[in-house]
Amino acid sequence: MRILVVGAGPAGTRCALRTAGRVPGAQVLLAGAEPALPYDRVALSKHLVGDLTQEALITHTLADLRAAGVSYRPGTRIERLDLTAREAITARGERIPYDRCVIATGSRSFRLPLPGADLPGVIAWRDLAESRQMLQVARDGGPAVVIGGGLLGLEAAVGLAARGMKVTVLHAVGWPMERQLDYDAGTLLANRLRARGLTIHMPAATVAIEGKERAEAVLLKSGERIPARLVAMCVGVRPNVDLAKVSGLEVARGIVADAAMHTSDPNVLAIGECAEVEGRLIGLVAPALEQAEIAAATIAGEAAIWAPRAESAALKVSGTHVWSGGEVAPANAEAVTLRAGESYRRLWWREGRLVGAVLYGDTSEAGFYQILIASGRPVASRADAALGQAYLKDAA
Ligand SMILES: Cc1cc2nc3c(=O)[nH]c(=O)nc-3n(C[C@H](O)[C@H](O)[C@H](O)COP(=O)(O)OP(=O)(O)OC[C@H]3O[C@@H](n4cnc5c(N)ncnc54)[C@H](O)[C@@H]3O)c2cc1C
């Protein structure tokens, strides 16, 4: 069986490796648009801040892939699938035949449609090449503006500051990482980042990026003008669905797939951030890898179904431990809060079960809360649970 995996991000690479290991006699070809070997996208933040070299980002060498039974073609963008002929057409016009094709084209960073958003020096951070561009500008120091105070924006800001830039973060909401943190945890985090030298404007509305040949300043609705040699746009992502669309596959917000990862064509599967599985988009690496495993099982003819789990996220490079899991500040839940020194912990409960948690400062209990949320176990003493696993005696 000829299996073509399109996109060599974490989902595509995992799927190619698992399929090669599972389907006897499979010829697996992994085609990725990026010129690099498969690398750890999540670790780009650590690379930007200077904790990891570019070499250390690489997850698989050509020899690793070959030994696992996967042929790799970097720099190969697939433009269209001919669903009838079962062929993929590359940007260079080459036709690659397949029996099964897995689309794992991921997402791209969204660029706000502002005047000046296309100027050189404005980078919508997503991949290794963009990280290199950011590092190149950062080499000469000077002011940088990060638009977006979500997880990615804060990691960009901390990274650029560590590289010697004077960084201002502009965030549209009143506290950072509002999807993962409640107001109190977000405020603690913002204060800590300010104490470390970042300037943070919240809420802030950006109206334009100014500059003649390249970005020079960011203009706010308030009229304030913030100088910027580099503008990092970190305002969310959009699934890469163009390939699926031009090929005639069903696309909603992402490429429509069922829980076994089948798209509207029986020979094509979709996984990772490009896929909308049973109506659900994902934005984290763990579920993307789970979907890769399911697709490999589906291709191998095994019955496998992807079941979404409670999501969790951690800020990696801020020097401050921040973690959140499950539902954050949901309307119909009771909150229990614990503050001790620099640490803050808030847990949300519904019908005696933990449904969400935010940890700031001390995140040592993150694994425990994640398991508690995922298991849905009833807990009698919320106060004990707030103290941590060692204090909880009554989990049923
Ligand atoms: C800096 C950074 C930090 C992050 N930190 C975290 C974190 O801490 N925790 C977490 O869970 N997630 C994090 N994420 C998100 C995580 O990286 C994604 O969830 C994950 O990469 C999704 O994997 P994917 O394989 O679906 O898509 P992607 O990683 O986007 O990979 C898709 C690949 O397909 C290629 N491609 C696209 N179109 C085509 C085409 N037509 N032909 C061939 N190839 C194509 C792309 O070039 C890309 O290489 C972070 C992301 C970034 C950028």
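^ flavin-adenine dinucleotide complex. The longest strand covers residues 343-350. The pocket of flavin-adenine dinucleotide is lined by residues 6-12, 31-34, 41-42, 44-45, 77-78, 104-107, 126, 152, 155, 240, 243, 272-273, 283-286, 288, 316 (CB under 6 Å).
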